[in-house]
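Figure 3 (text version): structure tokens given as input.
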């Protein structure tokens, strides 16, 4: 999915969106992430109006675009601001989170059956309507259920019902999952559980230990037991909402996370209980209707985040991230290195209207899509990402030792991204911008390597169309600087190279 996410309020007005669908298609997107707001489809309890939803789906369909819907309902970026007025104003029926001092936060409590049932009822009605109006077209292909959930300004819910749950036995559903899956648990959870004695009964602190604040290492897991506790209850709530929707229309559903970062390094600074990698197993145990947990990535540690989410069978999908030159480079890396399902810069209808970098990268990735899909998961493909902090990348692929360098001519590139696919013996398809790619041979005898031929070209509906035969100054030749390819700084290039070995 070559994607972009709309601004939060864009789809609240059909007239605002009407001229934008063509612009999105012209920017080489094939999919759009678009919000649906609970407050706008159920202004009165039990009375649903899907006019805006229909307008959004029809607009996308008419322009050959697919949709990933975001269900803005109980929570968006931790807060509860997208629920209808009849939920907002009735805090007795739909209670809020309390912090440690007893202050009420503008966050629906995950411990409320009333809130969960109201959300699930509305979501089921939405999914039923989408099935009835779109199933034959399949414009809507996935749903993100809620957005960046969790508690800000407290490490957990301290309401009376939450306090009672925290000191009560951990549900057998979760302890049974720990026992059954102990060999494959993520290291973070496994370490905490084992350190507390690998118990299968007891309160949350008895099972996972007492936790506090570590302010010296941002990657340390402060208040981890509280985070696990909240993750379980958010997952139970959202899992019920997703299950209600899937009963009506069983398309893939996922949840996304506001990430832990150096400046927001513990639960409460980032939303406590959200679907972060260190609580992945909790979400799996408590929300089987959720198909994957995914990151919103704005932080510099892009590669690390991708690794954290692309493990234990969890596929990588990036529904919200940066665009521009850095986003364009990261897109190539995500699809090539981590078999990403989706890359999606935020605000594609606003700041990124003139985002030529993303448009150009998507144009090339669209040409490569059949080749990428063919090679996903078989170890024959790698992503390329380099910047001024890490100007050289080294890895092995297809029997070759590869070194990626930021291009330095005519000036030093600031960021470079690409993808390399082994398509045959000593044969590679490479695409990208702003880097040099050098080849040497791995193994004991270490023969020399040279270019048999290198062609620049393009794909037309999956068929390779060679154009320039690259030689001389347009490649690295073995007699001068080593053997490799050059990718220009001012445009994306797709190159097919055939190597040979000699002594």
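Below: residues designed for each position.
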């Amino acid at each position: 999915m070559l994607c972009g996410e709309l601004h939060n309020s864009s789809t609240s007005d059909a007239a605002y969106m009407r001229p934008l669908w063509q612009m999105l298609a012209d920017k080489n997107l094939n999919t759009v992430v678009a919000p649906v707001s609970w407050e706008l489809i159920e202004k009165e309890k039990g009375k649903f109006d899907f006019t805006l939803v229909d307008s959004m789906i029809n607009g996308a369909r008419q322009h050959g675009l697919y949709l990933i819907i975001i269900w803005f309902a109980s929570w968006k970026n931790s807060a509860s601001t997208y629920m209808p007025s009849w939920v907002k104003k009735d805090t007795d029926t739909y209670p809020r989170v309390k912090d440690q001092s007893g202050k009420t936060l503008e966050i629906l409590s995950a411990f409320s059956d009333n809130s969960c049932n109201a959300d699930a009822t509305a979501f089921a009605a939405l999914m039923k309507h989408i099935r009835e109006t779109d199933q034959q077209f399949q414009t809507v292909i996935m749903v993100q259920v809620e957005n960046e959930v969790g508690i800000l300004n407290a490490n957990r819910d301290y309401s009376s019902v939450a306090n009672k749950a925290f000191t009560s036995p951990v549900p057998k559903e979760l302890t049974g999952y720990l026992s059954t899956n102990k060999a494959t648990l993520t290291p973070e959870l496994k370490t905490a559980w084992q350190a507390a004695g690998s118990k299968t009964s007891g309160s949350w602190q008895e099972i996972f230990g007492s936790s506090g604040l570590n302010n010296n290492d941002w990657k340390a897991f402060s208040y981890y037991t509280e985070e696990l506790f909240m993750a379980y209850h958010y997952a139970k709530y959202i899992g019920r909402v997703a299950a209600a929707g899937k009963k009506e229309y069983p398309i893939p559903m996922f949840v996304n996370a506001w990430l832990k970062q150096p400046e927001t390094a513990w639960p409460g600074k980032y939303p406590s209980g959200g679907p972060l990698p260190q609580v992945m197993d909790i979400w799996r145990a408590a929300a089987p209707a959720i198909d994957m947990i995914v990151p919103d990535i704005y932080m510099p540690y892009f590669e690390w985040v991708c690794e954290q989410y692309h493990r234990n069978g969890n596929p990588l999908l990036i529904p919200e991230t940066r665009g521009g030159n850095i986003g364009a480079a990261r897109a190539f890396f995500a699809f090539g290195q981590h078999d990403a399902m989706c890359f999606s810069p935020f605000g594609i209808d606003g700041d990124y209207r003139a985002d030529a970098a993303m448009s150009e990268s998507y144009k090339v990735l669209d040409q490569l899509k059949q080749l990428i899909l063919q090679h996903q998961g078989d170890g024959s493909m790698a992503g390329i990402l380099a910047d001024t902090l890490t100007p050289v990348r080294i890895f092995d692929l297809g029997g070759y030792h590869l070194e990626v360098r930021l291009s330095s001519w005519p000036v030093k590139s600031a960021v470079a991204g690409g993808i390399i696919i082994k398509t045959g013996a000593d044969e590679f398809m490479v695409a990208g911008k702003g880097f040099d790619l050098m080849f040497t041979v791995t193994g004991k005898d270490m023969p020399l390597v040279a270019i048999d031929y290198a062609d620049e070209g393009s794909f037309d509906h999956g068929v390779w169309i060679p154009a320039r035969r690259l030689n001389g100054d347009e490649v690295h030749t073995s007699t001068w600087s080593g053997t490799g390819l050059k990718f220009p700084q001012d445009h994306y290039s797709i190159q097919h190279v055939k190597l040979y070995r000699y002594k």
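The first strand starts at residue 3 and ends at 5.
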